[in-house]
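User: Hey, my collaborator sent me this sequence without any context and asked if I could get a structure. I don't really work with proteins. Can you help?
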Amino acid sequence: MITIVRTDSTNEDFRKLVTELDKDLAIRDGEDHAFFAQYNKIANIAHVVVAYDGDAPVGCGAIKHYEQDTMEVKRMYVPPVMRGRGIAGMVLAELEHWAAELGYTTCILETGQKQPEAIRLYTKNNYTVIPNYGQYADVESSVCFEKRVR
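Assistant: No problem. I've predicted the 3D structure and written it out in structure-token form, which is a compact way to encode the shape of the chain:
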């Protein structure tokens, strides 16, 4: 049974999963990885969730304040051997609930065209493609999404 734990970025299981995520993204992003990595630091993230199958960490994600009513979804990851079991959807739903509990109305996020499984996840969970925002505004390989959460 999968359980979801709310924590923060000091959680060692979160840090291990993010290390795996970064290795995957370095391959997918290639020479663009350094650009994206600068926006994905995990120090001082107060709102992190980790999914567990028993004692084993099997997924993670985080939300960070973006602007007044908006949280940005960051660091979503499920190891390849655990994909296809709905874990990412559970992590995303928990992040959305947490954002709503904190008084935010919208979640936004950026993913890459080289991450088709992420694009499917967000589309399946009723995220809408929006114009690229902030630092991603002129990045052709980025795909940005948003969803109202309350």
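In plain terms: The chain is about 30% helix and 35% strand. You can pass these tokens on to your collaborator as they are.
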